[in-house]
Amino acid sequence: MDVTDLKTVFHTQDGVVHAVNGISFHLEEGELLSVVGESGSGKSVTMMSLLKLLPIPPAEIASGKVMFDGKDLLQMDLEELRKIRGGQIGFIFQDPMTSLNPVFNVGFQIMEPLIEHMGLDKKQARARAVELLELVGIPGASDRLNDFPHQFSGGMRQRVMIAIALACDPKILIADEPTTALDVTIQAQIIELIKELRKKLGMAIVWITHDLGVAAGISDRLLVMYGGFVVEHAKVGDLYKRPLHPYTRALLNTLPAEGSGETRLRSIKGSPPNIGAEPKSCPFAPRCDYAFERCHKENPLLERIEGVHDVACWWDVEKEAPRHDG
Amino acid sequence: MTADAETLVRAKNLKVHFPIHAGIFRRQVGAVKAVDGLNFDIKRGETLGLVGESGCGKSTAGRAMLRLYELTDGQIDFEGVDIAGLSKNDLREMRPRMQMIFQDPQACLNPRMTVGDIIAEPLDEHTKMSSKEKRDKVKSLLESVGMNPDYVNRYPHEFSGGQRQRIGIARALALEPDFIVCDEPIAALDVSIQAQVVNLLQDIQDRMGLTYLFISHDLSMVRHIADRVAVMYLGRIVELAPKEELYSNPKHPYTKALLSAVPVPDPEVEKTREHIVLKGDVPSPANPPSGCRFSTRCPVAQKNCFVDDPEWRKIGDGGYVACHYAE
After folding, report:
1. Which chain A residues are within 8 Å of B193, Cβ to Cβ?
2. Distance between alpha carbon A151 and the CA centroid of its chain, in Å?
3. Count of other CB atoms within 10 angstroms of residue A35
4. How much is the pTM?
C-alpha cells in the first residue's frame, strides 16, 4: 500500500479543522508499521481516511492517493470499497465493547464477513468461525459462538474483534489502539497473540498507539505524528536510539526512566496544538526547546536524512545547528 | 489508641462489600467483595503507590480511606482517630484534612460553575472567610498550580485536560489538607501532559508536606513518584514494599507478572526481555476463588494454594507479601 499526500479536513460550525495535512507513507508486505502520537495528532483519522470510514460530510478527504493493489482506494465507489473493507483490509478498533454489536451473538458477527466477502454458506462459515476463535485463543470456541458480546471480558472481546478482522485473510490489518482499553497483563496477552498471528499468517499490520513502550516491542518501522503531520519516520532501532525530531526526543524523555533516580520528570511545556487553522509554521514550534526564527515562519517538510530515516525539522539536534542555511 | 507519630493513616482489615440484590423481593443474594481485608499504613509525608488492574478494588480502597464509601468492616485510623466510627458531624470536622483528586478532570468539575466558584466551594463549606479573602485565596491557589490567576471567571470547558486537572488539584489544596488520595490523576491525560502534572504534584508535596495515596495502573509512573508501593489483586493487597525493593526484587508471582507485562520503550531490551504472560482473566470479585485469590492464574501455584488463604506476612526489609511460597 502506498499513500501519498493524504489530506483530511473536517467542516465544522466553527470553521475547518485540518486533521491530516498531506501525509505520505508506504506499507510493505508483512511488516508492522506503528503510528505513534498523542490524542488529536491525526493518527486515527489518517487510517480511517484510507478506507473512507469517516462520515462525509463533515469530513472531507481533500487530496491524496491511496494505492492498494494497483488501484486508488479514494477513487473507488462505495460498492468496490465495501469489498476491500473487512475483506482485504481488516480493522480492529480501540474499544471492543462499542465496536461489537450488542444485539447479535459473536458467531453471527464473525460469520457475516465470511458470507458477505468469501461467499461461504452458513455451515462453512460456522466452521471457519470456530477455527478463527480457536486461532485467537478463545477456549471452548464452538460453544461460545452463541454468546453475546457482554458475556465476554474486555480481553476476550478484543480477541473476538481480531477474529472478525482476520476472517477473510486480509493482506493488511489496521489496529487502532487495540490494547489501550485493556489492562497491562491482558495487553501482554494480546500483543503476544498478534506476534504469533503475524508469524502464522504473514499479513502487514498498521498499529496505531500512543504508547512508545508497546511500539518498541512490536514494530519494524514507526511514524511519529504531531498536529496532523508525520514529523519523524524511522526503523524501530534508529528511532529509539537516535531520535532526530525534538518532539520524539521530548516524548521519550517524559517517560520515567527505569531506576534513573531522577527526581523530576522532564515535561514538554504547553499543550498540543489547536488544529483549527491551516498550519503555516512548524506545529511543534511553540513547545519546542530548539525553535528558532525559521520554525515560526515555515513548516518543515519531511526529508530523508539517511537510509530509512526521515524527519521534518529545521534544526539538526545532533549538530545543534540549523539543518539548512537560510 | 494512639498511633506513633510517624504514621498518618492506618487501615486495619479494611473491607468494602457491595451487596447484590436479585429476585422480586430484591433480597441480597451475594456481595461484590471489592475490597476484602486491607492492612497498611501511610507515613506522614510519604507517597504510597497503589497499583493493580482495573476491577481490583484500588479506587474503592482509595475512596473508603476517606470514608466516601461506608466500610463493611475494619477501621481507618487518621492520626489515631478511627474515622470509620465517627458520626456525620465529627467526620465533617475531619474532612478539610483529607482531600481527593479524581481521575476524570472533565467529570469532576461542575460545568456550570466558574473556576473561582469551584475552588472556593470547600472554603464556603468549611471556613468563615470573607468573600475578599476567598477571592485572594483562590487566586493564590491558581498560581500555586501554575495557572493564571485571572482565569477565576472562566468555565471548565475553556480549559484543556491538563489544566482541568490543575483546577482539581487547586480545589483539593484549598483547605490545606494533610492527606490527599490521588485516584488515577494522570490516566486521562496525554503523555506529554502527564509529566507536567506529576511534577506539580511532587512540587506541592515538597512545599506543603503532603501525604499521598497515589492510585494508578501505570507502574512506571508509580515507580517515579512513590516511596512505597502496594500491589492489589482482586480486593487484596498481595505485596507491599519500598519502591526499589518492589521493582528490582518482586516477591509475589503476580507482581512479577505485572512488572514483566509493562512494555519498555527500548526495542533492544524488549527483544531480549522475558515476558510472563498470565493466562486467563481476573475472576469476579463476587465469587473469588478459594485459597489464594491469584491461584487460578498463578504460574507457580501448588496444591495448597487452591485451599489455604496465604497469610499477610513480613518479608525482607520493610516489605509484606501474601503468598505461601514467596521468599
Report:
1. 267, 271
2. 28
3. 30
4. 0.82
